[in-house]
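Lecture notes, continued. The same structure-token format from the folding unit now serves as the input rather than the output. Read the line below as a description of shape only.
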């Protein structure tokens, strides 16, 4: 592998820790996407009594090609996975304004938390059968739309949780369908190597797709805003390269298992992709958000066409957008989730949403 954008230190840090911090990497013009957040949610930024949802995941209205959204970060991410040609040309190749807001609560101010006590340890696979060599979500990316200070609700990473997680997938070549029950127990009971996302507005954190992470309490009671897209590869990892020239993503897997190659590993069931389980409830928020944005535009004397949303550009544009995000796929074997923090399973009649 030849690295033109990653330094030697970048490579070593990613392989050893499973993540990389890239400062000031979001193109400045897209940081303004947070400006209509309050209209979208129908709440007052200056009145915290209207912040009735502590933790919120919004749908996406605007998106641009990944390399346009964060050019420096994209160049590094391409090198981490072995080159841009290894990346799926359709799935999540655009990044957008699907904000995740951690507001915190007043009663949390001044307190602290123990990472082992967090109740949300997971990895971001909600749309395919997971095997050890699965590279669907090769990278989980955290884009900081606000500063994230200490105790400000930054995502917590369990670095030493990768080894037991990957051992579990090694031991189960039949693969697992999300949600994954019990495979993050190490983070709750024995994890002792944690890192917390602390950064500035515009920073990017690139994490390996098999790095367990969790949302954390926001002890400052402000709006911590991020987005959380992924880099998806076209082919599974190759964990048995004859020349030993593994990508950094593959090196993380091998290091976690203390191996130099894994020639014996073979999935014993078919690979399966389906509608992303944790997207349904976000997509269902679109109509209400559009109504609020159109109303706000009218109050400013502007037409509905002035509202910048993919859902106001016609059915063809909407379908193209939803295909890029997997909304065109069939519902999977474990249904979808209807709540941001609870795995309340639901099987809708169809994966196809009403076009707004």
């Amino acid at each position: 592998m030849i690295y033109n954008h990653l330094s030697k230190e970048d490579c070593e840090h990613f392989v050893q820790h499973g993540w990389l911090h890239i400062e000031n990497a979001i193109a400045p013009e897209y940081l303004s996407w947070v400006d209509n957040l309050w209209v979208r949610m129908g709440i007052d930024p200056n009145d915290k009594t209207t912040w009735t949802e502590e933790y919120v995941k919004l749908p996406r209205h605007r998106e641009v090609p990944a390399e346009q959204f964060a050019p420096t970060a994209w160049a590094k991410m391409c090198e981490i996975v072995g080159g841009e040609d290894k990346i799926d040309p359709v799935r999540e190749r655009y990044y957008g304004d699907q904000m995740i807001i951690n507001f915190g609560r007043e009663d949390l101010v001044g307190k602290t938390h123990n990472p082992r006590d967090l109740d949300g340890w997971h990895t971001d696979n909600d749309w395919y059968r997971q095997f050890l060599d699965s590279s669907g979500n090769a990278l989980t990316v955290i884009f900081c739309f606000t500063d994230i200070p200490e105790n400000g609700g930054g995502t917590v990473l369990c670095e030493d949780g990768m080894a037991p997680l990957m051992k579990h997938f090694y031991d189960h070549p039949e693969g697992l369908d999300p949600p994954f029950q019990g495979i993050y127990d190490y983070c709750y009971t024995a994890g002792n190597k944690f890192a917390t996302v602390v950064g500035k507005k515009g920073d990017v954190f690139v994490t390996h797709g098999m790095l367990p992470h969790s949302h954390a309490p926001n002890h400052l009671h402000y709006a911590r805003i991020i987005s959380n897209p992924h880099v998806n590869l076209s082919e599974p990892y190759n964990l048995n390269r004859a020349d030993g020239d593994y990508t950094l993503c593959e090196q993380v897997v091998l290091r976690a298992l203390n191996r130099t190659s894994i020639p014996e590993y073979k999935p014993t069931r078919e690979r399966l992709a389906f509608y992303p389980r944790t997207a349904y409830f976000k997509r269902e928020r679109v109509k209400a958000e559009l109504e609020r944005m159109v109303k706000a535009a009218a109050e400013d004397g502007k037409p509905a066409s002035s509202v910048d949303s993919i859902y106001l550009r016609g059915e063809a544009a909407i379908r193209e957008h939803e295909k890029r995000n997997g909304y065109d796929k069939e519902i999977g074997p474990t249904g979808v989730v209807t709540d941001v923090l609870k795995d309340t399973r639901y099987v809708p009649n169809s994966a196809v949403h009403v076009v707004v």
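Point for the exam: The mean pLDDT is 96.
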